[in-house]
Design goal:
Length: 635
């Protein structure tokens, strides 16, 4: 087995070395992870500043503004209209503007009223088709008439039945990492920042919202105008259309949602305004004017997406007790780490997600106290350990080599939790106040810029590594960023509230305590998760029945607790939970919640057949990303 994998890897390396860097070949992440330590050293030298996931040529011509005029056709499931791009030549000799597209039909390109020559190149898997436009002699704008395909990778068109209200259809886009190109022809690279304006035409009864200035009291007339005056990378352009209504939560914060969940969402997330204020106090003023939330239908493939001014949020975190609101802290924190200071390429994703995860913990501590901070940090650390045990070594590196790979296939806890742990170590070494001051300056220094890992490293060299040369060590920092695993002696989060859970779990497993005797009355959702996530792989039927009948786990309304329990159920083939498992898989499209269940089910023949049935029923309602991520388990 090993030798076959090794041969496959040699083949991949050769392919990568020979392939035209403009047209990376499609290489899937291995389904069964193997440690392949030498993989990167065999490849050609990586160009840190190059975006290997875009065809665009911003070094020759750079787009600075996009004006959209799009009609949402819910019958055809298409966005139809024009994108007018304003550009500047970086190279005076430049003759061609190269854009990214994926599944787009390009009808015409014009400058003024004059047609402009264009050519749509052959499609490359994962990346789409480059659109070459011959620059007109005069002016600095081109208008592209186009429409999207009904199965655009970055858009999901939902039928009324797939929404909370069941009466109106819904559309949402999800551009990160490389899907903006499936609904707008543009330079789809985080190195290119654009301002944008848009006119969106919808059926009259629906409301459109975007990652831009939204007017909560706009007349609902089917024509909506937007303006995003700050330059943003393409992966932050976002649109949603549905039976949306608005409720204010604070002076600068509010929620958009379907009417039946609006009140529940507004009360679940009522601390958003305090989170915003606390973050500003520590890391500097919020740059984006308003901060609103949009609650999506349950098929939204992520927990949240930090679309500027309007984070997109899964409804699966509305638990009724604020237990899962760290997601809001996370998306809010991206307003600093990610949206203001942006990763230059997808190799640098950890600069977005690691800094944001670090900030998330800090915000949660500021609002909910140190016990919660410790519990969440331990749960995050355990997720990290699980990934380190399972992933190939090259995928454990913060500055990951993604050449020839689809960024969607490499999603893991590494950029998040390893990134955050690294920052936590620096914080502990230089002191919290000093580190906060550093972060504030870092956000200012690189504001509205896209930076590479290497730029961050040299900034660190000039700042903290110089000021705190006595406690910081350059080699160790390199180890954190460029080597797999967690360096020895790294911080290890701990929680007293969890130690108590360990004690009773051990006693129950030993048989010295029955489930009924465990005093769970004051347990937080985090303690429940810790209790379940740290059960041994195998439990016997009596134990499973005892847990379920005492704590009603199969019936849990908390989607995270249900997830942890259902995973135990699958590992132990606890059939009384399978009906719930089925409806969970069909009802939720959030990949983090369903993928581990499919992965576990796929390990047995019977489990796989069950997974296949659930997947087939769920598929019409799943987002393309969720289909892509789980399809392999049921084939
Ligand atoms: N920006 C990410 C989602 C993302 C990352 C989409 C990479 C595509 C490519 C978002 O901020 C995020 O991290 N969401 C997490 C939140 C969680 C860590 C609190 C999620 O969806 O689970
Ligand atoms: Zn994030």
């Amino acid at each position: 087995m090993k030798s076959i994998r090794y041969l496959a890897f040699l083949w991949i390396s050769t392919l990568l070395a020979c392939s035209n860097p403009e047209q990376p070949a499609e290489i899937k992440a291995p389904q069964t992870p193997q440690k392949t330590p030498q993989q990167t050293s065999k490849q050609t030298q990586i160009d840190h500043a190059k975006d290997y996931h875009s065809f665009a040529n911003p070094d020759v011509v750079k787009v600075s503004h996009i004006d959209l005029d799009l009609t949402a056709d819910f019958d055809k499931k298409q966005l139809i209209g024009t994108a007018t791009l304003t550009y500047q030549k970086v190279d005076e000799q430049g003759k061609t503007l190269i854009l990214d597209t994926r599944g787009l039909t390009i009808l015409e390109v014009t400058s003024g009223n004059t047609p402009v020559a264009f050519e749509l190149q052959k499609e490359v898997p994962n990346l789409g088709s480059a659109l070459h436009i011959t620059l007109p002699e005069q002016g600095n704008q081109v208008s592209i008439s186009y429409h999207t395909s009904k199965d655009a990778s970055g858009a999901q068109w939902l039928t009324p039945e797939q929404t909370a209200g069941k009466q109106y259809p819904f559309l949402f886009t999800q551009a990160q990492a490389v899907h903006a190109r499936s609904f707008i022809p543009l330079q789809d690279s985080p190195q290119v920042r654009v301002t944008y304006t848009a006119t969106i035409r919808t059926p009259k009864e629906l409301l459109a919202v975007m990652s831009a200035a939204n007017d909560p009291v706009t007349p609902r007339d089917g024509v909506y105008e937007f303006n995003m005056p700050q330059p943003i990378p393409s992966y932050l352009i976002a649109l949603a259309i549905g039976d949306l209504h608005f409720k204010a939560m604070g002076e600068r914060t509010g929620v958009y949602a379907e009417p039946s969940i609006l009140d529940a969402a507004a009360s679940e997330f009522e601390d958003t305004e305090s989170m915003l204020e606390a973050t500003e106090k520590t890391y500097g003023p919020y740059s984006w004017d308003r901060y609103d939330l949009l609650i999506l239908p349950p098929s939204f493939p992520f927990g949240g997406m930090e679309n500027p001014r309007l984070s997109f949020i899964t409804p699966t975190v509305i638990a009724g007790d604020k237990s899962l609101v760290s997601l809001i802290a996370h998306e809010l924190a991206h307003s600093w780490s990610g949206n203001t200071v942006t990763n230059a390429t997808w190799r640098d994703l950890w600069l977005n997600e690691g800094f944001t995860t670090y900030l998330t913990y800090r915000i949660m501590e500021m609002i909910y106290g140190t016990d919660r901070y410790n519990m969440e940090a331990v749960l995050g650390y355990q997720d990290l350990q699980a990934d380190i045990a399972a992933l190939p070594e090259n995928d454990e590196i913060l500055a990951i080599d993604l050449r020839g790979r689809n960024p969607d296939d490499v999603f893991s806890n590494i950029p998040y939790e390893k990134g955050a742990l690294f920052l936590r170590e620096i914080e502990q070494k230089v002191g919290r106040d000093n580190f906060d001051k550093f972060l504030l300056e870092y956000f200012n220094h690189f504001a509205f810029k896209s930076i590479t890992t290497d730029q961050f490293v040299s900034y660190l060299d000039q700042t903290l590594l110089t000021t705190y040369a006595d406690v910081l060590d350059k080699e160790r920092i390199h180890q954190w960023i460029f080597e797999p695993g967690i360096p020895d002696g790294a911080p290890m989060p701990e929680s007293d509230a969890f130690s108590k859970v360990d004690t009773v779990r051990d006693a129950w497993l030993e048989g010295s305590l029955s489930a009924k005797q465990i005093n769970t009355q004051d347990w937080t959702v985090h303690q429940w998760l810790y209790f379940l996530n740290n059960m041994p792989q195998k439990l016997n039927d009596m134990q499973l029945v005892e847990l379920d009948s005492t704590f009603q786990l199969t019936a849990s309304k908390n989607n995270e607790i249900a997830h942890s329990w259902l995973l135990i159920a699958v590992k132990n083939e606890y059939k009384p939970a399978y009906e719930r498992l089925y409806s969970y898989l069909v009802g939720i499209g959030r990949n983090k919640l369903v993928k581990p269940l499919y992965r576990e089910l796929a390990k047995t023949v019977e489990g796989k057949a069950f997974a296949k049935r659930a997947f087939e029923e769920a598929k019409p309602g799943y987002h393309p990303l969720t289909v892509h991520a789980n399809q392999g388990f049921v084939e």
